[in-house]
Design goal:
single chain; 145 residues; mainly alpha; three-stranded antiparallel β-sheet; 8 helices
Length: 145
């Protein structure tokens, strides 16, 4: 069975300390599809949480460092990954979903993402995407009637 980039990313995120909820009807994948393009999901699914410099990532992925840096910086601005300066150079890393990626989407959220997130509530096995701070923050855009 051939799985797509968002499914690979979901599997990668599930290995992080906070895990990633899988929902039988695929809502979890629709959330990732809203946050990540297929190319971004593919790249994030191969990243490590410890952080790597662009040269290491480019070598590991077999791509041009220049193009990769541009994509990584865009992803960092979108809150999909973490980027920081260190004594060894600019580093990039995967971040957890809850307590990371999801919270960074609040400035980008629209009614569609809000509806997707609401749709996840209670569907996860013992956990879901919602957290009290997100639900009570007023950060969701109005979904309307």
């Amino acid at each position: 069975m051939n799985i797509g980039p968002h499914e690979r990313l979901a599997a990668t995120l599930d290995k992080t300390p906070n895990g990633f909820v899988h929902i039988e009807d695929g809502t979890h994948l629709r959330v990732l599809e809203w946050i990540f393009t297929p190319e971004e999901a593919e790249l994030a699914s191969q990243m490590k949480m410890r952080g790597e410099i662009a040269e290491e990532l480019a070598r590991r992925f077999g791509v041009s460092e220049r193009g990769l840096v541009e994509q990584l910086e865009t992803m960092a601005k979108k809150g999909q990954i973490r980027a920081w300066n260190s004594s060894t150079g600019r580093r990039y890393s995967l971040i957890v979903f809850i307590g990371g990626i999801w919270e960074y989407q609040m400035d980008r959220a629209d009614p569609r993402l809000a509806a997707l997130m609401e749709d996840t509530s209670g569907k996860g096995v013992g956990r879901d995407f919602s957290t009290p701070s997100l639900l009570s923050s007023g950060s969701y855009p109005s979904i309307g009637p």
